[in-house]
Amino acid sequence: MLYALVLSLIFGLVLQFYLQEQLAVKKQMFRQKDRLTAELMVLLIQKNLPKKNQTVYFKQGQVTYQITSAPSEHVAVTDQTVSNSEGSYIVHLTDGSDFIIKK
To answer: What is the bridge-based pairing of β-strands 98-102 and 54-57?
Structure first.
C-alpha cells in the first residue's frame, strides 16, 4: 500500500513537471508568432515608407511609424525603450502585445 502511494506521488510529480514544460513551450510559441506578425506588418508598410508620423491599421493590429529628430528622444511602450534618430515602428496587436521595431 505504501509502495503504491509512493509510486503515485512520483508519477504525479513527473506529470506536473511535463505539463508545466508544455505550457511554457506553448507560451513561447505564441510570443514568437506575435513577434513575427509584428515584423511582417512592418515589412508590408516599409515599401511605402511614410515621410511623417503615420498609423496603418491591419486586421491583426496597428503600426505607428514615428520619426524622431534627435537621438535623445525616447519612445517607451510596455517597459521597452528605444532611442533612435531615424525612426521606429510601434506595433500594437489586437491580442494586447506591443512591439517596438527600429528602422
So the answer is: unpaired
Nearest partner of 64 among 56, 72, 52, judged by Cα: 56
Residues 6+ apart with CB under 8 A from 1: none
Q: What are the grid coordinates assigned to 93, written together?
A: 496587436
> Quick one: how far is CA 97 from the chain centroid?
5
Task: With 0.90 as the threshold, say if the pTM is over it.
Answer: no
3-state SS string for the chain: CHHHHHHHHHHHHHHHHHHHHHHHHHHHHHHHHHHHHHHHHHHHHHCCCCCCCEEEECCCEEEEEECCCCCCCEEEECCEEEECCCCEEEEEECCCCEEEEEC
24-59 pLDDT tens trace? 999 999 999 999 998 888 888 877 766 677 888 888
